[in-house]
Amino acid sequence: MTRVIRASDAARSGRVEAEPVTPLDVLLALTTPLLLASSALPRRTRPVGVAASAAVSAALVLTALVLDGVRWPTAVLAAAAVLALAVALARLRPPRRPRRRAATVLARLGGATAGTLAVLLALGATGANWALPRFSLPAPSGPHAVAETTLQWERPHPGPSPRTIVGRLWYPTVQRPDPGGVAYLGRDAGESTIVAAALAEDFGAPAFLFDEVARGRVPAAADAMPSPGRWPVIVLSPGLGGVRAQNTSLAMELASHGYAVLAIDHPGDSSATVLEDGTVVRSNLADDPATADALIGEWALRRAADLSSALDELERIAEGARTDAAGRRLAGALDPARAIAAGHSLGGASAILAAGLDPRFAAAVDLDGYPWLAETLGALPPVLALVAGEGTGDAEADDRYRAALDAMLAASSAPQRVEVAGASHLGFTDAPAYLPPLPELVGGSGRDGANAESAEAILAFAARVLHG
């Protein structure tokens, strides 16, 4: 079964996207031309105009600092305003005795250069506010508030030491979100900074460009008591090199509709995994494409084993075998007998493998992932494949993907393929919330990407396979 869905009012109901450029950003950008314009007033009214413009500019900068803290685009706008103020103050000086023509020309040239630089700085910072906006995810639309807790456990594997896995569990709660929300990228600001720096390095970008996502907060309650009931579980794997936070918007939306969603890091694969003792496990994946192609199946199998290990841990919690605070709080609240494996990109391939190898998973959800090694599995349980309508831009690669996806779905007992019109590959993650809104990066799905449409399709699919 294949169908195409588009952004709909139903999918986005209750999910309000943040504007990339706010009215305050616009007002801050206007302080520079305002100050420069005040310097061109008639000499008699110029002092009052400059003073008023300076007061307005200072008030706007202080307001931005109070509301947003220190953001580098705001700092650049403030620097532009200071430079414009210097130009304006220079024009307040009383007329001097006639100067040589060369000195007059140099003074005017210096003022014009400073004014031009101030305008360019203001324009650049405004462009940065558009391209790299304040981090904000839509509030989940379901009937439940959402809580989160971080879990860490060890998975035995053939290596010399256990494999330590970190995951973040999102689940329904009756408690309101914490004031200011919870950190997006990690347990706290320190972990968020480490992970953001690792992501920036992997993207080949300066760390300050990830400042917004490092400071990001989401509306959830930390370590709260779960809502009464036993909630079915979804184990969620990120894409290659991705981190557990990358699908937070989707995880929170699903949790608000009555699911416990465990998003995990894959140590040695994820850009950075920070353990409880502060140890940072960086990605050790091969960089060259030839080696990566040779190892991709091995990586997917290792990730599939991580997903099964995550389900093991959820079973321990459900049975009351985990005795720490999180285990005691969640004992009896989870129903791992109703479980789905899900993931984005290579995480989607890993979810298919996990569901094909581990019969405890009732189904798999593949968010635009090539189904590596699916041909080795035989019969598959129900599979939902969500496909980016924008494709990759490479017709040959898109054809290979479609053929592999068709073959995998043919082996599923209840296949469903949903094409999300306008979505790009990264649109199935939170990346549109912090990357430049360029179509080749995030498609045409807006700042929320394809998360609203994905959640709508997953909820309908899960209702059929888990609830009958």
UniProtKB/TrEMBL annotation:
<keyword id="KW-0472">Membrane</keyword>
<protein>
    <submittedName>
        <fullName>Uncharacterized protein</fullName>
    </submittedName>
</protein>
<keyword id="KW-0443">Lipid metabolism</keyword>
<keyword id="KW-0812">Transmembrane</keyword>
<dbReference type="GO" id="GO:0016042">
    <property type="term" value="P:lipid catabolic process"/>
</dbReference>
<feature type="transmembrane region" description="Helical">
    <location>
        <begin position="48"/>
        <end position="66"/>
    </location>
</feature>
<keyword id="KW-0442">Lipid degradation</keyword>
<feature type="transmembrane region" description="Helical">
    <location>
        <begin position="105"/>
        <end position="132"/>
    </location>
</feature>
<dbReference type="Pfam" id="PF03403">
    <property type="entry name" value="PAF-AH_p_II"/>
</dbReference>
<dbReference type="GO" id="GO:0003847">
    <property type="term" value="F:1-alkyl-2-acetylglycerophosphocholine esterase activity"/>
</dbReference>
<keyword id="KW-1133">Transmembrane helix</keyword>
<keyword id="KW-0378">Hydrolase</keyword>
<dbReference type="InterPro" id="IPR029058">
    <property type="entry name" value="AB_hydrolase_fold"/>
</dbReference>
<feature type="transmembrane region" description="Helical">
    <location>
        <begin position="72"/>
        <end position="93"/>
    </location>
</feature>
